[in-house]
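Priority: medium. Attachment 1 of 2:
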């Protein structure tokens, strides 16, 4: 049996690969030489080991995520789709319905989208903080295709249906339960479908997209949580009324208390735009000097494309200190790496936390802030995430 590398081995191997790639100046944008690659990795306390097909934060060294660390979530299972027989249908309130094969789509104008894709539940618990990855997607732009079909003026939504289906039990005002077989679906307003820069993707990082990630065709919408990026895309329907499928109206709905004067009023909203967020990916240390231990931290910050302006890091009850943002690689809808010299820390346990600040001055909230503390649902877990370490002299 082949022995799996531990965190430290993975980190050291990854650091060597990153350094070699970064030396290849012709393509520096596709490799990340982390500023915290020197020193010994300090493991986080009380954290479960990263499972397969999830991002290993402590070994993070590449800006584009390798396939073996790409997460996938599916609610109706993974469908069997024959790529040779596949057809994308575009119908509903359009002047000219279309049925397009993958080859038809590949002959159309191509576009690449750089985007960090995150599950909206990522960060909801210690066992689920690694459902995120960064990619270069390739496909054909959605907007020209819809315009070619001729969207009728009464259409207000574009609904994207996957090939995955499941029998759902609905409870409308009827005398008995209603069981129906439904496809997975999510919708965008017509305005967003035409202006959000969405593509119909068939490649990831220069390779054919894998089945578990949505092949043969997936909707990719920059700045929206993973649930909105419909996998195994099979049909696009233009409608004159709101789509109210399970994963639009009944699940992936955030229930949040909002202060209105002295009252808390609870408001429900469908999960859509990604929130401002950051996390400490790893901490490294040097040899003890005069009783202190020199430490560095490295991490990542991201949002919906508004723009990360700054990241600050705090150790224990100390002041917030500004981290250094990597100058490149950078892209509007992708994470930005940051690093910081933590100084000489005393032996023992410490808590380290980061917070991102966007170009509009919005600050990533702490767990005790109202917008997180008054949130009653699992989704949109974008609170600050404290990391605990123990340093031995």
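Attachment 2 of 2:
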């Amino acid at each position: 049996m082949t022995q799996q590398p531990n965190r430290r081995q993975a980190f050291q191997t990854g650091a060597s690969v990153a350094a070699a790639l970064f030396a290849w100046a012709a393509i520096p944008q596709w490799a990340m030489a982390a500023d915290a690659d020197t020193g010994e990795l300090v493991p986080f306390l009380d954290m479960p080991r990263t499972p397969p097909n999830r991002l290993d934060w402590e070994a993070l060294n590449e800006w584009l995520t390798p396939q073996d660390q790409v997460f996938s979530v599916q609610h109706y299972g993974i469908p069997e789709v024959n790529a040779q027989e596949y057809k994308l249908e575009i119908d509903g309130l359009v002047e000219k319905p279309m049925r397009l094969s993958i080859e038809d789509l590949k002959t159309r104008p191509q576009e690449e989208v750089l985007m960090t894709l995150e599950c909206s539940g990522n960060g909801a618990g210690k066992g689920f903080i690694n459902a995120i990855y960064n990619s270069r997607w390739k496909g054909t732009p959605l907007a020209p295709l819809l315009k070619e079909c001729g969207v009728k003026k009464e259409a207000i939504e574009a609904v994207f249906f996957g090939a995955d289906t499941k029998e759902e039990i609905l409870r409308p005002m009827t005398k008995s339960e209603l069981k129906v077989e439904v496809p997975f679906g999510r919708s965008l307003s017509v305005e967003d479908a035409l202006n959000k820069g969405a593509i119909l993707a068939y490649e990831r990082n220069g390779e054919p997209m894998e089945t578990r990630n949505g092949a043969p065709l997936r909707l990719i919408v920059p700045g929206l949580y993973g649930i909105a990026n419909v996998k195994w895309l099979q049909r696009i329907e233009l409608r004159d009324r709101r789509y109210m499928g399970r994963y639009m109206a009944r699940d992936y709905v955030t229930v949040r208390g909002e202060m209105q004067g002295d009252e808390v009023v609870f408001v429900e909203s469908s999960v859509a735009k990604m929130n401002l967020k950051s996390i400490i990916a790893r901490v490294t240390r040097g040899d003890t000097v005069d009783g202190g231990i020199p430490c560095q931290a490295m991490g990542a910050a991201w949002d919906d494309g508004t723009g990360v302006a700054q990241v600050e890091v705090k150790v224990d009850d100390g002041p917030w200190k500004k981290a250094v943002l990597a100058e490149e690689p950078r892209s509007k809808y992708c994470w930005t790496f940051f690093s910081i010299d933590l100084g000489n820390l005393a032996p023992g346990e410490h808590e380290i936390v980061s917070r991102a600040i966007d170009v509009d001055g919005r600050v990533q909230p702490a767990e005790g802030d109202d917008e997180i503390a008054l949130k009653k649902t699992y989704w949109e877990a974008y609170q600050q995430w404290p990391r605990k370490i123990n340093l031995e002299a």
